[in-house]
Write a structure and sequence with these properties.
Elements lengths: L1 H17 L13 E19 L12 E2 L2 E17 L2 E19 L7 E20 L2 E20 L3 E21 L4 E23 L4 E24 L1
Antiparallel strand pairs: 1-2, 1-3, 1-9, 3-4, 4-5, 5-6, 6-7, 7-8, 8-9
Length: 233
């Protein structure tokens, strides 16, 4: 893990100094609106905790930590304003991936846990430093995600809930101005989604409630890396 962060930091530092002497080259204009698309990968770690025993958990305090990894794609829009080499603004993004995990319970035979992440969105403040045709920046703000969770005995009964969960985003990236309007970039984001209770009763496949109360707390941590292309107006 440390080696990966060290390599990433070395890349950003080398890219910064590779831009040359700022006194000898004009810094690009980053002010204005932009609209674009991104694609990349996500490594998500879900955190489940049962608040009480039920049909699908042997005891309160039982946990389940599925990994949900895959490819993603989406779009971003934002506005930047520049003061000398300093740049600040806001960015909105929406990303989809239809990511899934399915695993058997380790405590209750015949029970299967499923997680699906359909999409997530962010709204963040953006602050950076421009040098020649490069913009090095950081992000911080809101993150929200659509998480489906289900646990049950296939063909018999299931407890299912889909809720929107909110958290925060921290990120960093570098953009390169290929032309007056075309911007290429790479970005890394960390999203933390605090735990939220999901309560209700399971449902039989043939219809009707199991009559047994279920209560599960779920949260998540996302690590997201994307390549981006934007059009600056």
């Amino acid at each position: 893990m440390f080696n990966r962060f060290a390599l990433g930091a070395a890349f950003l530092v080398s890219a910064f100094f590779a831009t040359g002497n700022p006194a000898q080259a004009e810094t690009a204009d980053w002010s204005g609106f932009y609209l674009g698309a991104h694609a990349g990968g996500i490594a998500a770690k879900e955190h489940w905790k049962w608040n009480q025993a039920g049909l699908y958990a042997a005891s309160a305090g039982e946990t389940h930590d599925p990994s949900v990894n895959g490819l993603i794609a989406g779009g971003q829009a934002g506005y930047l304003h520049q003061w000398g080499p300093w740049v600040a603004g806001v960015e909105l993004s929406a990303t989809t991936g239809h990511l899934k995990d399915k695993s058997n319970s380790t405590s209750t035979p015949g029970v299967v846990h499923k997680t699906t992440i359909d999409w997530f969105a962010t709204a963040a403040a953006k602050f950076g430093y421009a040098r020649e045709d490069y913009l090095f920046y950081g992000l911080a703000g809101y993150a929200g995600t659509d998480i489906h969770t289900s646990t049950g005995q296939p063909g018999v009964s299931e407890f299912f809930e889909e809720v929107w969960q909110s958290g925060f985003l921290l990120g960093a990236g570098v953009d390169y101005k290929l032309s007056k309007h075309i911007v290429l970039g790479a970005q890394y984001n960390y999203m933390h989604i605090p735990e939220r209770d999901r309560t209700g009763t399971g449902q039989f496949e043939i219809g009707g409630s199991t009559g047994v109360a279920e209560s599960i707390s779920t949260g998540a941590d996302y690590h997201i890396a994307t390549l981006r292309m934007s059009w600056q107006f």
